[in-house]
Fold this sequence. Notes:
Layout: H1 4-15, H2 32-59
Amino acid sequence: MVSREREAALLSLWWSETEEDYTQEWRDELRGEDLALVESWDRRYSSGVYQMCLDILQGNGV
């Protein structure tokens, strides 16, 4: 189980990411539970963006 402190640190890094490689380097060191947690955030983010796009398209009658 990831401690609250570790989760907060990872979340800060996750929110600070951009398209620049140097903002994503921290991911190279992830293992085990840390990796699973970050991957779950990535999946939920992707799913949310996908759903938002679908909602926009459906709202525009496309």
